[in-house]
Design brief:
By secondary structure, this protein is of the alpha/beta class. The protein contains 43 helices and 25 strands.
């Protein structure tokens, strides 16, 4: 092979599971560089009798992209789009092409690929072919099978051929024609009974009346008959004026009852959405993340098209009139419709937790029945779930009768409940003439249940088909034919608890004895993981494998996952790291949280926290990394950069004794490089410039009070002022104080102009950010405990706290709560802490009407704006965005990390990745700036990255506002 072959423990851990409940550790993971590589690998593996599983993005929910032996990752190199033919309306692609990449290639021709699963921005076409993926628009365009012209394949016997249609002899597969001829009646009565019957093999396509279409039959065979090397696909015209109708109903079954009537109006999509799923989004991302919706406990999302917006609106009105909905709303193409489709796209991750916060699992996430039976089926399924005492958030492709549902079946200890529930659910779907799977395939989750849906004769026929293509069972064994049991190889029951309330033992896992030191005071060894039942294992199993972290979502404002966008390696993506952590708490493959595989996996995590907001499952890899470092090095000698960078506020205070001398010494090249090298940092970096007068020194010396130390803000010498103005605590973090004092100085000016009295506490209040990012959680707790003593009294008395450095502000809004979950002062401080834009725009804290405050005019400002990752993830950038727009600024808002990410880009071994991340958005935008344009970034690290890599000096938003305040 020209590609790479990897047998390392870490790599095998990354590929041991997909988006399913199952864990099958491969012996080898291979990355073919070409189709010739694939053919060569398959030939060798066939001769050796080694099982092989082809894999794309690894987003399979049924466990059909994990397997023993060898996993072939076809996504890394086989992603060429050979042709897009606008005349024939076809495209020729390799199996690793991401579906959204094909869409981008087809759009200039007014075309698109019809099926569009919610994972389309990372799902590969090879995987879609393997599962017969559908997506919302299958109502209009059909399944993947309906859009395949031909397939270039290799079967389990080593035969390479092009599967097409119109050859009833099936010359490439001897014996297939005879098998079809002998079973015509069986195929006609049991296969292809309705559109979403995906379970088993779709043998109906082999019938003469269906064109003897071998290509379509092979779609959905889950890699058990052939390995796809390439495909010729049909394309369809892009709808010109899509409009979204949302209909509200008393419950989800009532919504399903309405579907048959609405299908008569030929919609492009008909999706169901449980109201509780929308509530999850509101809680996670705020009420503005969801448009105003009609009344109801469940909704139908119906997309219609037309030759013009008016024509589409007319169809929308007809659908509203024909429905029995209790409420309706119509959204033309735009922000509100986009928000609704994003909620739908994130359904798999959002539904990973029930409203009660319990983990919900796939397994029965893809059942389908004829659409006219969907309402009754859902009622019976609700009754079955009630009998088992389980819950879930239903959504899905109601127009096709396909329903997605993750259920909080208790998998922590065994799969016994899963087995009995799945068996009864399969019997129920069979009662309604339905299918175990509507688009995800059977995989390891449902293959064993096929006899409940098909007759013994049909099951025997599936086995005979398998024997014609793969008699030695080397292609994805254990799936469809001769299946593994549904409760075999389950991932979750094998994981050990790692409670945050227990001492840390060997390998970073559970220890004996009692908690000590700061941990004893709070009752938690590291982070509390209160949102995950105080269990790190539960936390890392938030990752359900949907793989959104593999997609570049920057065009839609997403920040996740910067390291993966730079390296394109599963090792460096949130999901890959989560898989290694899951293996670590399992302990049988990776030797605990202190194992080298864990640290190798986490090494290039920037701790940007983007996954905590962008991942629909709420994975927070920055927190997990900090916890792992804490458990690994607590009480032990740490890497030198943990002291050099993790104790930066301490060094900054010491540098404040003689900042000029230190800056002068650090300007000498060989000294700077020696200091950086000794501190575990990259010698290509610069040492930060320490302020000659830190802000707190500036404040104490009275520079904000007419040069008279000791006066209150706005107090004149000899003339005490009884102020009625609202007070604001200006919290100066270590970065703003020692490295960027111009930022808090500007804040004093803006707050004064806005009618606030500024309070700067006498005591230093460090948030411990650098201790957190280096996993020194005991040190972080000590500093945050001191901070609560300083800021707590203000917060509990309702005085807002202004944070200037986004990463430090985010600590008070998130990490503080997790480190002190039982301290009411922590909740008070978190609630009181705001960004400048939040302070000025929140009705509760905004300047009073009689304050005389007018937002400075920024109409002369053209700027590149870099939101800080932690602000994006924790506070959000909406208030800043609105403030800049109201001020009239012309901005280019970047999405994605700057690449420095606090200590990450400074650490030895990270420089090249740091620069590569910066090249995703920041550096190109700075190079394209016009003369006189501003670079606005509240994050000190963002401004540092810009000046060190591109020589561009940045300003915080408050500095830009302060410069344009009225004079006088």
């Amino acid at each position: 092979m020209a590609g790479t072959v990897d047998t390392t423990t870490r790599r095998r851990a990354e590929y041991s599971t997909d988006a399913s409940n199952y864990r099958v550790v491969p012996d080898v993971v291979a990355f073919p560089a070409s189709t010739d590589d694939v053919v060569a690998a398959l030939e060798v593996l066939r001769e050796l009798g080694v099982p092989v599983t082809a894999r794309g993005a690894g987003t399979s929910v049924a466990g059909n992209s994990v397997g023993p032996g060898v996993v072939l990752d076809l996504s890394q190199h086989l992603h060429a789009i050979s042709t897009v033919d606008p005349e024939a309306r076809t495209a020729v692609v390799e199996p690793g092409v991401v579906m959204s990449s094909l869409q981008r290639a087809a759009v200039p021709h007014g075309l698109r690929f019809g099926p569009d699963p919610s994972t389309q921005n990372r799902a590969t076409l090879g995987g879609m072919i393997g599962n017969n993926a559908c997506g919302p628009h299958a109502v209009a365009y059909g399944r993947t099978a309906d859009n395949v012209v031909s397939l270039d394949v290799v079967d389990g016997r080593g035969r390479r051929f092009t599967a097409g249609q119109g050859d009833p002899t099936f010359a490439d597969v001897p014996g297939l024609a005879e098998l079809v001829r002998e079973n015509l009646a069986l195929i006609r009565t049991e296969f292809g009974r309705f559109g979403r019957q995906v379970s088993g093999y779709s043998l109906e396509h082999l019938l003469p009346e269906n064109g003897s279409n071998l290509a379509r039959m092979l779609v959905g065979t889950e890699g058990t008959l052939v390995t796809v090397l390439g495909a010729t696909l049909d394309l369809v015209p892009t709808p010109s004026a899509p409009t979204l109708v949302v209909l509200g109903y008393p419950d989800m079954p009532a919504a399903a009852d309405d579907v048959p009537v609405l299908l008569r109006h030929h919609p492009l999509a008909v999706e169901g959405l449980d109201a509780r799923l929308v509530d999850v989004v509101k809680r996670a991302n705020g009420p503005d993340s969801v448009p105003d919706l009609p009344d109801g406990a469940g909704w139908l999302m119906i997309e219609v098209g037309g030759d013009s917006p008016a024509a589409a609106r007319a169809v929308a009105d007809q659908i509203v009139a024909a429905s029995s909905a209790i409420g309706s709303a119509v959204y033309p193409a735009g922000p509100d419709a986009t928000k609704m489709w994003q909620i739908r796209a994130d359904g798999a991750g959002l539904a990973g937790r029930t409203p009660a916060g319990e983990q919900a699992w796939p397994g029965w996430e893809d059942s389908a029945v004829p659409p006219e039976k969907l309402g009754d089926y859902l009622r019976d399924l609700d009754a079955l779930m009630a009998r088992y005492g389980v819950d879930g958030l239903p959504y899905g492709h109601f127009g096709d009768g396909c329903m997605h549902l993750r259920i909080d079946i208790p998998l922590e200890t065994s799969g016994s409940v899963l087995r009995t529930f799945l068996t009864e659910a399969a019997e129920l779907v069979a009662k309604y003439g339905g299918s175990l799977s509507g688009e995800h395939g059977d995989g390891r989750a449902r293959s064993e249940l096929l006899p409940l849906m098909y007759s013994p004769e049909a099951i025997a026929l599936l086995e005979q088909v398998k024997a014609l293509f793969d008699p030695e069972d080397v292609l994805n064994p254990g799936v469809v034919v001769r299946p593994a049991a549904v409760d075999t190889d389950l991932r979750r029951p094998a994981a050990q608890m790692v409670p945050s309330t227990a001492p840390i033992g060997e390998r970073g896992l559970l220890g004996s004895g009692t908690l000590r030191g700061p941990a004893k005071k709070t009752g938690y060894a590291g982070f509390s993981f209160a949102h995950d039942h105080h269990d790190l294992t539960t936390a890392v199993h938030r990752c359900v494998g949907v793989g959104k972290c593999r997609a570049d979502t920057s065009a839609a404002g997403g920040f996740m996952c910067p390291s993966y966008l730079a390296t394109k390696d599963e090792k460096d993506v949130t999901r890959g790291r989560a898989r290694v952590l899951q293996e670590a708490v399992n302990g049988s493959l990776v030797g605990g949280l202190t194992a080298p595989e864990v640290h190798e996996s986490l090494d290039l995590c920037l701790s940007c926290k983007a996954c905590s907001s962008d991942c629909p499952a709420g994975v927070d890899m920055a927190q997990y990394k900090s916890e792992v470092l804490h458990r690994t090095y607590r009480g032990k000698l740490r890497p030198m950069d943990h002291y050099a960078l993790g104790w930066l506020p301490r060094w900054a205070r010491l540098a404040g004794i003689a900042p000029r001398a230190i800056n002068r010494v650090m300007s000498v090249g060989w000294i700077r490089k020696a200091v950086l090298w000794a501190g575990g940092m990259d010698t290509r970096r610069e040492v930060p410039h320490f302020a000659e007068m830190p802000f707190r020194t500036w404040w104490r010396r009275g520079y904000a009070t007419h040069g008279v130390p000791g006066l209150a803000h706005r107090e004149l010498p000899g003339r005490p002022v009884e102020s009625q103005r609202p007070r604001v605590v200006l919290w100066t973090d270590s970065f703003s104080d020692s490295l960027s004092p111009s930022v808090p100085q500007a804040a004093v000016k803006v707050l004064d102009a806005a009618g606030y009295d500024v309070v700067v506490p006498d005591e230093q209040a460090c948030c411990g950010l650098t201790w957190i990012s280096t996993g020194q959680l005991d040190g972080a707790r000590r500093r945050l405990s001191d901070l609560l003593k300083v800021l707590g009294p203000y917060a509990v008395n309702g005085i807002p706290i202004l944070g200037l450095e986004p990463s430090c502000t985010a600590v008070l809004r998130s990490d503080l709560l997790d480190l002190f979950p039982d301290d009411p002062r922590a909740a008070a401080v978190a609630g009181a802490t705001k960004t400048l834009a939040e302070l000025l725009t929140d009705p509760e804290t905004a300047p009073a009407e009689d304050s005389g405050w007018e937002l400075p005019d920024l109409s002369d400002v053209t700027a590149v704006v870099q939101p800080h990752c932690h602000q994006h993830s924790v506070m959000g950038f909406g208030a800043d965005r609105s403030l800049l727009a109201d001020a009239g600024a012309t901005v280019t808002e970047l999405a994605g990390c700057c690449g420095l990410a606090g200590n990450f880009g400074m650490q030895k071994g990270h420089y090249d990745v740091s620069v590569a991340v910066a090249e995703n958005a920041l550096l190109p935008a700075l190079r394209e700036q016009g003369e006189g344009d501003e670079f606005i970034a509240d994050g000190f690290s963002c401004r540092t990255q810009a000046v060190q890599l591109e020589g561009v000096e940045g300003k915080a938003l408050v500095e830009v506002l302060a410069e344009r305040l009225p004079r006088g």
